[in-house]
Amino acid sequence: MWLFLLGNVMTQYVCVRTVFLLTSECSSLTVTLVITLRKFLSLIFSVIYFRNPFTIYHWIGSVFTFTGSLLFTGLHVTLMVQLGLMKPEEEKTSVDSDAVMVREVTKIEEETREPGIRKRQQVASGSN
Q1: Burial of 6: CB neighbours in 10 Å, binned 0-12, 13-18, 19+
Q2: How far is Cα 98 from Cα 82, in angstroms, rounded to an integer?
Q3: Scanning 23, 50, 98, 102, which has the fewest C-beta atoms within 10 Å of its C-beta?
Q4: Spatial CB neighbours of 52, under 8 Å, sequence gap ≥ 6
Protein backbone atom coordinates (compact mmCIF):
# COMPACT_ATOMS: atom_id res chain seq x y z
CA MET A 1 0.00 0.00 0.00
CA TRP A 2 2.84 2.43 0.79
CA LEU A 3 4.32 1.66 -2.59
CA PHE A 4 1.08 2.68 -4.33
CA LEU A 5 0.91 5.86 -2.25
CA LEU A 6 4.51 6.73 -3.13
CA GLY A 7 3.84 6.03 -6.81
CA ASN A 8 0.75 8.24 -6.72
CA VAL A 9 2.66 11.08 -5.04
CA MET A 10 5.46 10.87 -7.60
CA THR A 11 3.15 10.84 -10.62
CA GLN A 12 1.16 13.77 -9.19
CA TYR A 13 4.40 15.71 -8.71
CA VAL A 14 5.44 15.04 -12.31
CA CYS A 15 1.96 16.07 -13.54
CA VAL A 16 1.84 19.32 -11.56
CA ARG A 17 5.43 20.21 -12.41
CA THR A 18 4.80 19.60 -16.10
CA VAL A 19 1.65 21.75 -16.07
CA PHE A 20 3.55 24.62 -14.40
CA LEU A 21 6.33 24.37 -16.99
CA LEU A 22 3.81 24.19 -19.80
CA THR A 23 1.98 27.24 -18.43
CA SER A 24 5.19 29.26 -18.47
CA GLU A 25 6.01 28.28 -22.06
CA CYS A 26 2.65 28.05 -23.87
CA SER A 27 -0.66 29.83 -24.19
CA SER A 28 -3.52 28.99 -21.86
CA LEU A 29 -5.42 27.37 -24.73
CA THR A 30 -2.54 24.97 -25.38
CA VAL A 31 -2.31 24.12 -21.68
CA THR A 32 -6.05 23.45 -21.54
CA LEU A 33 -5.80 21.24 -24.62
CA VAL A 34 -2.95 19.21 -23.11
CA ILE A 35 -4.80 18.79 -19.80
CA THR A 36 -7.95 17.70 -21.63
CA LEU A 37 -5.99 15.08 -23.56
CA ARG A 38 -4.35 13.89 -20.33
CA LYS A 39 -7.77 13.49 -18.72
CA PHE A 40 -8.98 11.63 -21.77
CA LEU A 41 -6.05 9.22 -21.51
CA SER A 42 -6.90 8.73 -17.83
CA LEU A 43 -10.44 7.84 -18.88
CA ILE A 44 -9.16 5.30 -21.40
CA PHE A 45 -6.85 3.81 -18.75
CA SER A 46 -9.82 3.55 -16.36
CA VAL A 47 -11.95 1.84 -18.98
CA ILE A 48 -9.25 -0.71 -19.75
CA TYR A 49 -7.90 -1.32 -16.24
CA PHE A 50 -11.20 -1.42 -14.34
CA ARG A 51 -13.11 -2.92 -17.28
CA ASN A 52 -15.70 -0.16 -17.29
CA PRO A 53 -18.14 -0.01 -20.21
CA PHE A 54 -17.23 2.28 -23.11
CA THR A 55 -20.56 3.48 -24.53
CA ILE A 56 -21.41 5.29 -27.76
CA TYR A 57 -21.31 8.58 -25.84
CA HIS A 58 -17.70 7.87 -24.90
CA TRP A 59 -16.88 7.29 -28.58
CA ILE A 60 -18.61 10.53 -29.59
CA GLY A 61 -16.66 12.43 -26.93
CA SER A 62 -13.44 10.77 -28.11
CA VAL A 63 -14.06 11.85 -31.70
CA PHE A 64 -14.78 15.43 -30.61
CA THR A 65 -11.69 15.52 -28.39
CA PHE A 66 -9.29 14.31 -31.05
CA THR A 67 -10.90 16.30 -33.86
CA GLY A 68 -10.60 19.49 -31.83
CA SER A 69 -7.02 18.69 -30.93
CA LEU A 70 -6.03 18.00 -34.52
CA LEU A 71 -7.75 21.16 -35.78
CA PHE A 72 -6.03 23.25 -33.12
CA THR A 73 -2.57 21.91 -33.94
CA GLY A 74 -3.03 22.60 -37.66
CA LEU A 75 -2.13 19.02 -38.52
CA HIS A 76 -4.85 18.95 -41.18
CA VAL A 77 -3.06 21.73 -43.10
CA THR A 78 0.27 19.88 -42.97
CA LEU A 79 -1.38 16.67 -44.19
CA MET A 80 -3.08 18.50 -47.05
CA VAL A 81 0.28 19.95 -48.14
CA GLN A 82 1.94 16.53 -47.98
CA LEU A 83 -0.89 14.91 -49.94
CA GLY A 84 -0.64 17.61 -52.60
CA LEU A 85 -4.10 19.03 -51.93
CA MET A 86 -2.69 22.40 -50.88
CA LYS A 87 0.38 24.34 -51.97
CA PRO A 88 2.97 25.21 -49.28
CA GLU A 89 2.33 28.95 -49.85
CA GLU A 90 -1.36 28.43 -49.02
CA GLU A 91 -0.38 26.89 -45.69
CA LYS A 92 0.87 30.25 -44.42
CA THR A 93 -2.27 32.08 -45.50
CA SER A 94 -4.79 29.55 -44.17
CA VAL A 95 -4.97 31.34 -40.81
CA ASP A 96 -5.27 34.69 -42.56
CA SER A 97 -8.07 33.34 -44.76
CA ASP A 98 -10.01 32.42 -41.62
CA ALA A 99 -9.78 36.03 -40.43
CA VAL A 100 -10.89 37.27 -43.87
CA MET A 101 -13.83 34.87 -43.82
CA VAL A 102 -14.93 36.16 -40.40
CA ARG A 103 -14.78 39.75 -41.70
CA GLU A 104 -16.82 38.82 -44.78
CA VAL A 105 -19.49 37.06 -42.70
CA THR A 106 -19.68 40.09 -40.39
CA LYS A 107 -20.05 42.38 -43.41
CA ILE A 108 -22.84 40.22 -44.85
CA GLU A 109 -24.62 40.20 -41.50
CA GLU A 110 -24.44 43.98 -41.34
CA GLU A 111 -25.74 44.33 -44.89
CA THR A 112 -28.70 42.04 -44.23
CA ARG A 113 -29.47 43.84 -41.00
CA GLU A 114 -29.48 47.33 -42.55
CA PRO A 115 -32.65 46.95 -44.68
CA GLY A 116 -34.56 45.99 -41.54
CA ILE A 117 -33.18 49.02 -39.73
CA ARG A 118 -34.14 51.32 -42.63
CA LYS A 119 -37.66 49.86 -42.69
CA ARG A 120 -38.08 50.47 -38.95
CA GLN A 121 -36.78 54.02 -39.33
CA GLN A 122 -39.28 54.66 -42.14
CA VAL A 123 -42.14 53.28 -40.07
CA ALA A 124 -41.07 55.33 -37.05
CA SER A 125 -40.90 58.53 -39.13
CA GLY A 126 -44.28 57.84 -40.73
CA SER A 127 -43.08 57.56 -44.35
CA ASN A 128 -43.32 54.36 -46.42
Answers
A1: exposed
A2: 21
A3: 50
A4: 46
